[in-house]
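Example S7 (structure tokens).
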């Protein structure tokens, strides 16, 4: 029985150590991969709007669709969140490391991949913001392109102006409902304190069982 209680204690500690699960704050739609894409290095900047629900949110992650030459890997890119395209008030600006997954070739000979990265918690009130991608670094030094999917976001490219919007998902934590024309997500980020309360209940139950058996 002592071994059983020790195992339950270990389970509680493991649960407490689990990271918070990210919610989808905004989703501009799936990767297209077959129409067009826009360069996000060599001085080019692409800027897309996204919305945060009225209750606000903590943003700390991003996933987006990228076109790369076969064998190329995105190492990092400058990500910024601003009040206007390419500028205005800056809420976050930093070089973010990305993990590449789900690559598949398209008719133009590019690999179309999902790039996922996390960054420091950024608290945003409800409203509309601009997500900017630029200064991307690839292992070979080649260009990298942000997939165009013509989602509901407004978008601009610094050399040509208005363009169709790109494939991306903004991640973080929120206790409110965030809705776009393509997705609606509701949820709360599980906090370690809540998990600890759950674990305390398990330990309490174990103590009762022990008292009944001995």
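Recovered sequence:
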């Amino acid at each position: 029985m002592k071994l059983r209680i020790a195992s339950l204690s270990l389970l509680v500690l493991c649960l407490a150590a689990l990271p918070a699960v990210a919610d989808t704050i905004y989703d501009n739609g799936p990767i297209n991969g077959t129409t067009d894409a826009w360069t996000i290095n060599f001085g080019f900047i692409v800027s897309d709007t996204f919305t945060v629900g009225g209750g606000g949110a903590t943003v700390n992650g991003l996933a987006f669709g990228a076109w790369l030459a076969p064998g190329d890997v995105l190492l990092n890119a400058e990500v910024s969140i601003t009040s206007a395209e390419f500028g205005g008030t800056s809420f976050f600006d930093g070089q973010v490391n990305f993990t590449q997954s789900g690559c598949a070739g398209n008719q133009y000979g590019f690999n179309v991949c999902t790039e996922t990265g996390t960054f420091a918690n950024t608290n945003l009130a409800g409203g509309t913001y601009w997500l900017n991608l630029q200064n991307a670094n690839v292992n070979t030094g080649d260009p990298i392109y942000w997939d165009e999917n013509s989602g509901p976001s407004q978008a601009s490219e610094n050399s040509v102006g208005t363009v169709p919007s790109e494939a991306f998902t903004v991640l973080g934590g929120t206790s409110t409902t965030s809705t776009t024309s393509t997705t609606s997500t509701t949820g709360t980020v599980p906090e370690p304190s809540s998990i600890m309360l759950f674990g305390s209940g398990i330990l309490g139950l174990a103590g009762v069982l022990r008292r009944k058996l001995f």
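Notes on this example. The two ends are 9 Å apart (CA to CA).
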